[in-house]
Amino acid sequence: MDPKLRRMAASLLSLLLLLEGGMFSSSSSPSGLLEKVFQHLDLHQDEFVQMLKEWVAIESDSVQPVPRLRQELFRMMAVAADTLQRLGATVDSMDMGSQQLPDGQILPIPPVILAELGNDPKKATVCFYGHLDVQPAERGDGWLTDPYALTEVDGKLYGRGATDNKGPVLAWINAVSTFRALYQDLPVNIKFIIEGMEEAGSVGLEELVEKEKNRFFSGVDYIVISDNLWVSRKKPAITYGTRGNSYFTVEVKCRDQDFHSGTFGGILNEPMADLVALLGSLVDSSGHILIPGIYDQVAPLTEEEIHMYKAIDLDLEEYRNSSQVEKFLFDTKEEILMHLWRYPSLSIHGIEGAFDDPGAKTVIPGRVIGKFSIRLVPHMNLSVVEKQVTQHLQDVFSKRNSSNQMAVSMTLGLRPWIANINDNQYLAAKRAIETVFGTEPDMIRDGSTIPIARLFQEIIHKSVVMIPLGAVDDGEHSQNEKINRWNYIEGSKLFAAFFLELAKLHE
Ligand SMILES: *[C@@H]1O[C@H](CO)[C@@H](O)[C@H](O)[C@H]1NC(C)=O
Ligand SMILES: *[C@@H]1O[C@H](CO)[C@@H](O)[C@H](O)[C@H]1NC(C)=O
Ligand SMILES: *[C@@H]1O[C@H](CO)[C@@H](O)[C@H](O)[C@H]1NC(C)=O
User: Fold this and answer.
1) Is 349 annotated as contributing to ligand binding?
2) Could you tell me the CA-to-CA distances from 267 to 163, 178, 274, 400, 451 in Å, in that order?
3) Residues with catalytic roles
């Protein structure tokens, strides 16, 4: 045989073997097991949807501070604890005490579930975080169906919490229960941390994680969060970073009371004029932040990143249409995503104390507070940013020779999160996605701040990955929230395949 032909034949043969190993092999091999798992999830999908229906039916709204809804939250956590117990997990419902609201009302905080299944020291241990509370929803808000009665239309399962976050939590449970149903050993040890206050700021969670660091979390190798969305309708994604945020107020004061412009206009340094100049000095019309040094610590763009951005499935026209914006600052998909995810941005939010009612009131506000924030990216440093912003505003203010007083303060500081995409569990997630969906995932970040990932990474010092299951149009937090039946079932398969891939890497 011609050597070239032989090489081709050899590579064809190895390709076939690879395919067989990956998808079509006999039931005795690990991938035969995967085949059975997939079959089980397909055959029983109506039962999995029914379970989601039962969970969605519980009005576990943590946002409205109402005793009846708190009871629903407690019921939700009890149902979840029971489900996990029936899977054979050891379940602790951690008492989180109560909270006092600004109006003096005291409400109990639903327990956080810490559960574990398997503790074989030879296996990897993966901890799944999820939440079972939801945003408020009422039929009258513009829902086409009852938000608490899961309703299927054209393969879309409409209901509050369907995608955020009950569907993904159940997908993980479905994956585990399938191994159980098939009398198969779980390939990994599994832990669950499930809370009921995520939509209300995860009250008490950080303290709990800190307290359990050396107990519940001690053997954990990997942490998985599935609480965001793809950027596509069809193409799955892995999320490896989120932006942080630093929120500033700048106060300019002449006196506490307002003035009349007929009586004082013309003889004052007006606070609003100072403030408008200060706010106007922050960012130019191309979106570039004008604070000296602010870009110094931004991580340089790498070749690898450029390739990742190129591969992402984002329909710009659809994105523009759905956001009802005619023109963005940037014209290409890559530039738009980079400026949402890997570059900082500065937004001006509002002015406290300024006149903002309809009509023509001739007031000179005596004291005004401007509010703006900077979304932070790796490797920006909060305390350095605070110094740069303060210095810049002081310079601009002093050049105005104003007789007013100015005070700058950083009122919120949340650091960005970025993971190492070469960690084992990123590799496992990528392989699992390729097996289930037949495509490489979009490697994405989130432009908003999701404190939970950073919290786990910082306290537990273990690799964190976000594996979203929902499509870009799922409408989390909005009316007619849904998860596609396809995403829910394929997502369950994805988690099952992920367990097996993790186990392979751990061998
Ligand atoms: C965007 O909107 C325009 C005008 O309404 C429409 O013609 C076009 O098909 C839409 N494109 C997408 C991808 O939705
Ligand atoms: C941020 O910068 C300050 C001052 O330069 C330094 O002391 C601190 O260690 C830095 N923090 C981090 C997390 O790098
Ligand atoms: C502020 O005062 C300095 C020194 O008196 C002067 O040179 C400068 O022109 C003044 N700036 C403004 C904006 O009035």
Assistant:
1) no
2) 58, 77, 14, 15, 48
3) 133, 198
3-state helix, strand, coil in the chain (%, to 5): 40, 20, 40
Q: Ligand 1 pocket, 322 CB below 6 A? A: no
- 230: Cα separation from own chain's centroid: 11
User: Would you state the pLDDT for residue 243?
Assistant: 96
Residue 457's CB is within 10 A of a number of other CB atoms, namely 16
Best residue among 233, 315, 317, 322 to mutate for probing ligand 1, ranked by most atoms within 8 Å of CB: 317
**Residue among 118, 87, 82 nearest 181 (CA):** 87
pLDDT over 50 (residue 93): yes
> Going by CA atoms, what residue is nearest to atom 6 of ligand 1?
321
Residue with tokens 């929803």: 137
Ligand 1 centre to CA of 327 (Å) is: 14
Residue 464's SS3 state is strand
Domains of the chain are 28-241+417-506 (3.40.630.10), 244-298+343-414 (3.30.70.360)
Rounded to two decimals, the pTM is 0.88
Pocket of ligand 3 (CB under 6 A): 400-401
Ligand that lies nearest to the alpha carbon of residue 415, given by its number in the listed order: 2
Distance from residue 446's CA to the centre of ligand 2 (Å): 24
- Judged on CB neighbours under 10 Å (0-12, 13-18, 19+), 424 is middle
State residue 3's pLDDT score.
Answer: 46
345: left (phi over 0), alpha (psi -120 to 50) or beta: beta
CA 502 to CA 205: how far, in whole Å?
Answer: 27
Tokens of 202: 């995860």
